[in-house]
Amino acid sequence: MPIALLVGGLALAGLGAFLVTLGCHDFVLATRREERLIGGALAASGAAGLIAAYLVLHRRSGWALRGLATVSALGGLVLVSIQASFQSSPRLWLWAALVALPFLALWLGERALARAERAVGPRGVPEQSRKPEIAATVVAASATVLGSLIGLMGGAFTPLVSPSTLDVDVRLSTVGHRVDPEGREFALVDTAVTMENIGRQRLVFFGSAYIVQGYRSEIRSSSGQADWPLDDEVARDNWSGRYERPVVLEPIELGYDLVNPGDYLEPGQTLTSNWVTPVPRDEVNTVEGWVLVATGYEQRLRLGRQLLSAQDDDLSSEEGAVASWEILPTSWIAQLTRGRQSVSVQYEVTRAEETQTTGGVGPVRPIDGISISYRIGPGGPADASSSRRSPGEYSERIANFYGAGGTVGTAAVVLDQE
Question: Would you say which domain of life the source belongs to (predicted)?
């Protein structure tokens, strides 16, 4: 057997075996319906490659062989489209090579067969006996093209348009009073939080934080309508500013992981939580609460092993506290095209622009809020140390692919001064 013929046949056989194995695995075990459809398309493409390898190794040629080789190339084309829709990567060249491989093998095989026929005369089966092969080619091509189009049109590997589908409702109320041993009066402020999944996809939590803060609002002279609007206090301080003027915010209680990372909400499901915070009445007369939540689509963003824990960091430091998890692949195709992915969440306290002197120590910038930032991208255990210093650059495209989004809820209550 000519070397070129053997190389071409083995190349087609290797490509076919790879696509059949990959496709059959995902067709059976992938966690999402769209990925299972794409797996079926790849398996059909791989089967066409195996049939083409059989024809080459048995010295067959013709349109049936060319059609089967073309169908086997569609498997690599599907991987190219999946890779390009997610993120540009050197892997793109590998999938492009899989597209060219069947045509190279076909060229080697037909060239070797042509040389052999010139030397010993025509050989092979009559053209009319190849009708079953041509029919098999048409069926395999249809299955490959339709399967890949259904999967891609279903959004298996494409970014989402509006990933944020969580509603966060925060309500504050005074539920009682306390007096400490020194005679100071405290108002007991209850913070009630309701989170509802208002979308049609299951949502997974990977970050959450809250802060309860107070301030003493001072009465000021009433302003006439000619002076409206009054500065930017509504947007900046969540306060109308018509009769009162908010001053420096004082943090009373703050924290993170209000919801355990990895917990999820089904469509239409709600999650409620509440806690009571003692607030010194001689220091503040108004209390407000903020809740910040980061979620993603659970069918795409599944948290695996935790790489970093926010509890190992100092939240009040300049770098804040960082938590990180591996993202579990949803299929072999996803793992091949995305590589190892992780999500990092950074919690930071925000500080006022003005400095103050407290207890003879200063000047210092007082805490006036808490923030969440996150990054989803390539990474694993080896990248944990760099993730602790900074979550890295934010990519809106990758975040949208995983359905990641942030939601904020806020409320305020005026303490009873009786």
Answer: Bacteria
CB 400 within 8 A of CB 158: no
Residue 239 binned pLDDT confidence (cut-offs 50, 70, 90)? low
Q: Given pLDDT bands bounded at 50, 70 and 90, which one contains residue 154?
A: very low
Question: Does the pLDDT at position 131 exceed 60?
Answer: no
Question: What is the Cα–Cα distance from 214 to 173, expressed in whole angstroms?
Answer: 13
Query: What are the residue boundaries of the structural domains of the chain, listed by start?
Result: 3-153, 166-414
Count CB atoms within 10 A of the CB of residue 303: 20
| Omega cis (within 30) before 363 | yes
Query: Phi and psi for 196 in degrees, rounded to 5?
Result: -130, 135
In the DSSP assignment, the letter for residue 230 is -
Strands 303-308 and 321-327, by their bridges, are: antiparallel
H/E element, 248: none
CA-to-CA distance for 15 and 45, rounded, in angstroms? 9
Kindly provide the residue ranges of all beta strands, DSSP E only, lying in 216-359, ordered along the sequence: 218-219, 244-245, 250-256, 264-265, 270-280, 286-297, 303-308, 321-327, 341-351, 356-358
* Top mean-pLDDT range of 58-67, 150-159, 387-396: 58-67
What is the sign, positive or negative, of the torsion defined by CA atoms of 145, 151, 154, 156?
negative
Distance in angstroms (rounded) separating the CA atoms of residues 72 and 103: 9
Task: Provide the pLDDT confidence category of residue 121 given band limits of 50, 70 and 90.
Answer: low
> Tokens 């496709």 label which residue?
23
Q: Burial level of 290, CB count in 10 A (0-12/13-18/19+)?
A: buried
**For 136, phi and psi rounded to 5 degrees?**
-65, -35
* Paired strand residues for 290: 211, 410
Percent of the chain residues past pLDDT 90, beyond the cut: 25
Cα 105-110-115 angle, rounded to 5 deg: 130
User: Per this entry, what is the length of the chain?
Assistant: 418
Q: List pLDDT tens digits, range 291-303.
A: 999 999 988 899 9
Which SS3 state, helix, strand or coil, does residue 90 take? Answer: coil
